[in-house]
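Supplementary Methods. Inverse-folding protocol.

Structures were first reduced to a discrete structure-token string of length 397. This string, shown here, constituted the complete conditioning input.
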């Protein structure tokens, strides 16, 4: 019985001694490699230097933006002597070595300019999307236009396929053989449309201003009675006309606001070129269709009543009221009218917000597409119009 106990005790000693002989535990998060690097850096501080590649967005102080969007600020090693440093320009693609310190990122070597940024308009695009020719101006001779060919890799070709001749772009490229060589292939490293930000207040005021201009036009053409645009022959406000006028005013106002910001940001060469998306086109068509169908139903009922000798089918009201939009000819609240008006107002509010957010960044694109409406809103709008027309066709008016 003693022999097994001795064997277990001996095994315990063999395991326990190496465990107690191990190195002290390191703080959490420090690996063996990191500890070795830390010891090496204490012997050779230059090991702490890191490299950074990106596009210069500001020269003094030097700010560089990487391809991932990270912006870093860098300081020269000697603030009194900057002659040893290459002076990059905004837009240059640079490679630099720096050391993180409590004072900031300190440059340790001369800045290497490995590429440049070109700003211009697309003149031609290769059929396989592998080349883009950009028309720009020579900085030394601004009156002379220069055509610069740029080679695009596979990762940029989906973006190039969405571009068109005349689009304003900004591309950063590297030239084989060095940036200062007169020949070589310009390989694109970053590519995007030129754009200009628009403040939220300016976006809202442009939309409101465009709709106000339409109101003034209506005021002039109706001789001071713009509400006559949705006034029926019975001197009541028409729900179908109201929703058509309201939706038309918003869509045209959004179009005018977008065109205004495009001209203001990129010039008169970008006037127009605003397409209407499918769902927005369908919703606008439904609005017009409801108005014309409601008109046809009413006219048909009036004519039928006239043939039957009834003259009180559409008795005229003394004065039009806003309540006419949600009531029938007997001045009773009508669910179909209320539903259509409510859904129209909801669609107008949602699309107005979408149009304002769309104008946040005006891209210098020859053709843009207005913001679309989602399928849910389109379905609700269509059902509301259908319910209104069904009620109008079946009811006695």
């Amino acid at each position: 019985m003693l022999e097994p106990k001795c064997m277990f005790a001996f095994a315990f000693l063999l395991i326990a001694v190496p465990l107690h002989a191990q190195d002290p535990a390191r703080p959490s998060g420090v690996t063996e490699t990191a500890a070795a690097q830390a010891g090496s850096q204490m012997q050779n501080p230059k090991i702490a230097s890191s490299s950074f590649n990106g596009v210069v967005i500001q020269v003094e102080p030097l700010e560089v933006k990487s391809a991932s969007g990270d912006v870093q600020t860098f300081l020269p090693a000697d603030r009194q002597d900057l002659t040893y440093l290459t002076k990059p320009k905004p837009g240059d693609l640079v490679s630099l070595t720096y050391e993180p310190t409590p004072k900031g990122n300190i440059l340790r070597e001369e800045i290497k300019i490995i590429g440049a940024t070109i700003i211009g308009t697309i003149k031609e695009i290769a059929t396989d999307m592998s080349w883009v020719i950009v028309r720009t101006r020579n900085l030394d001779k601004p009156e002379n236009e220069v055509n610069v060919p740029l080679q695009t890799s596979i990762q940029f070709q989906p973006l190039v396929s969405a571009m068109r001749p005349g689009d304003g772009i900004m591309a950063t490229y590297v030239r084989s053989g060095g940036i200062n060589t007169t020949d070589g292939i310009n390989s694109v490293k970053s590519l995007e449309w030129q754009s200009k930000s628009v403040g939220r207040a300016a976006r809202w005021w442009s939309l409101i201003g465009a709709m106000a201009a339409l109101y003034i036009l209506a005021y002039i053409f109706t001789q001071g009675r713009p509400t006559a645009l949705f006034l029926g022959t019975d001197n009541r406000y028409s729900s179908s006309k109201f929703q058509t006028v309201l939706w038309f005013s918003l869509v045209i106002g959004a179009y005018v606001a977008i065109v205004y910001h495009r001209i203001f940001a990129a010039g008169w060469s970008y006037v127009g070129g605003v397409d209407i998306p499918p769902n927005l086109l369908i919703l606008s068509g439904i609005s017009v269709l409801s108005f014309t169908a409601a008109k046809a139903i009413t006219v048909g009922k009036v004519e039928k009543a006239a043939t039957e000798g009834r003259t009180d089918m559409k008795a005229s009201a003394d004065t039009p009221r806003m309540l006419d939009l949600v009531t029938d000819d007997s001045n009773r609240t009508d669910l179909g009218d209320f539903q259509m008006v409510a859904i129209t107002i909801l669609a107008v509010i949602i699309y107005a917000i979408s149009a304002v957010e769309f104008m946040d960044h005006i891209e210098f694109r020859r053709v843009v597409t207005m913001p679309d409406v989602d399928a849910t809103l389109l379905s609700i709008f269509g059902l509301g119009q259908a319910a209104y027309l069904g009620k109008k066709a079946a009811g006695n008016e």
